[in-house]
Amino acid sequence: MHLADPGAAPVGGAALDQVIGLTVGAGVVTLVLLFIAWQHRTHRIEWFQRLGDLAGRLLGTTAWAALALVFITVTLVTADLGFMWDVSLHAGRGRDDGPLANPAHYFILVGLFFLFIAGMAAVVFPRDAAKPSRSAVRITSSWFAPVSGIYLAGCGLYALIGFPLDDVWHRLFGQDVTLWGPTHLMLIGGAGLSTLGIILLLRENEVSANEGAGTAPTWLRWLIVSTAFGAGIIGLSVFQNEFEYGVAQFRMSFQPMLIAISAAIPLVAARLFVGPGAAFFAACFFLGVRGVISFIVTDVFGQAHYVFSLYLGSAILIELLGATSLRRKPLWFGAVGGFLIGTVGMAIEAVWTRLVFPFPWAKDMWAEGLAMTLPVAVGCGVCGALFALGLQGRLPSKRVSVVAVVLTLLAISASTANGLYATVPDNGKATVSLQQVGMPGKPEVIAKVRLEPANLIDANPTWVQILAWQGGGEGVISDRLHRTGPNTWESTKPMPVYGNWKTLLRLQDGRMMAAVPIFLPADEALNAPELPASASFTRDIVPEISILQRERNLDVPTWTWGVANLVVLICSLLVIAGLCVTTARISRGVAEADARDDRLEMSLT
Amino acid sequence: MRFADHHAAVLAIPAVLPALVVVGVVVMIAVRDRREQRRKAEDAEDSE
Hints:
The structure holds 2 protein chains of 2 kinds.
Chain A: H1 16-41, H2 47-59, H3 63-93, H4 103-124, E1 137-140, E2 143-145, H5 147-173, H6 182-209, H7 218-236, H8 241-245, H9 254-273, H10 278-300, H11 312-322, H12 330-356, H13 366-391, H14 398-420, E3 429-439, E4 442-452, E5 463-469, E6 476-480, E7 482-485, E8 488-490, E9 495-496, E10 502-509, E11 512-519, E12 536-540, H15 545-548, H16 558-604
Antiparallel strand pairs in A: 1-2, 3-4, 3-12, 4-8, 4-9, 5-6, 5-10, 7-8, 10-11
Helix pairs in contact in A: 2-3, 3-4, 3-6, 3-10, 4-5, 5-6, 5-16, 6-7, 6-16, 7-9, 7-10, 9-10, 9-11, 9-12, 9-13, 10-11, 11-12, 12-13, 13-14, 13-16
Chain B: H1 7-47
């Protein structure tokens, strides 16, 4: 494994031989897969059919669903591990010295490619004009593809398109070392939203399996579907990553809103669709998988440490609510469940952040956090209920469903817009005196800080911290400063100011979010000189982005930023629309199958 | 313009191109089938 000195790393990257190797490899894999698909569909081979049948017998599903399930499990484990490893590497070391110089990128790339292949496996498998399910989509007169397979392949494609768009993005705006770059959101969002596709695939399979092939035993079905909902929590929680490392470049009021989204949709849907215990099991599955991956990334690979949210409180709330008669009114159940998650559930998460997170939720963001979270939580709870109703073939009228989804998206957009609105104080200055400790050649400093104007920070700021990151290895160190007076603070531990470390004072109080650089290394690729950590200095308080994302090119006209965001937004809305359409189509299939079963029963009695 | 400047585009070649090829093949098959069926339907109308 080779990781170059990040200070010398070019802002782009170069590893031509690796890319050629990987391209040839992927090209051969694609040709082989296309060849197998063609031979299978024209009856030149039978082993692919037998393989599917075998997987189906083992999992208790139809052959096409079993193949996709096996692929997608491998995919998500690979991609999630690669993703967490990648974020750890970037937090610890900064940008890469090449596209494949970072070993984690292989995992992400292979994972996302196989997500696409998983969907395509379900699409190409059914042959001889056999309809894989009632919801199948006609491709030709003799080829019907399961709609959930098409959705999964679409998620894979959406994520993969993030790569070339990411390049255009970096060329326009410079490299943004943040998880929340819009194209980065596509990469992780595609994989995240595919987890709901697994649940749709399982259900679509059942509707076809009911009409012929055998179904899985009840306990196995419960386990598989509850696990899929747990994967749903993992998939929807990917956006919280920066908070988990304590390097959030956004206002903290975002965090409860994001947790509420990833809790409300899967937990409400799991309880309504699968039954008692499923929401709790899903939360436990989330904790187990994230725990194991955290162990691998931090303890085995030795990269930056991170923590994750609890979800158990929210899961128990939903289980308790499930014991009441409200569960017979699913939409109300979703709304009340979302409300409970947004209030009590988030209070439990607040305690959890105090116990394990680098930065607990400060009093200062409680009210705003609640205002941003509550409408989103209620909306997502209703959407979770709609998802469960869709799986049961009982979706309410199209108008009700569309209005609920659109209102939820609007609530999320409004909260996001509010969260992104941050201010930088005019004429703010920080006077810092540094006491040098640490070894010669590796200086570390203890800081005393005075902020001007004196009333800049109120009694309960979100944070006043010193962060040092991208210094190599486990390179994220943060220190919540100890307040010594109305506008003075001091360090509680030494912070590094040498090598490639980027060390800065960070302030967040209400809407104000700003920073003061303490030490920044020289960066030849960016033509930036070193900013030394002098014994004492007074520096202006500046926007964080100018320090945390030095690579960013901030001189582009605003309209390009708007257009670029619009392109990503359209792609993302298409995926969400795809999810809704797929759910509705499967719902109709389930309803038809149920009606047919009822008619059969009637004719028998 | 350096090769090194196109970090993600380079990463995209091995993954996105094959995926687009596969999608292209499926769409082509679907379009060809529909066109053929339309032609058959027209032929049937003509012969009537």
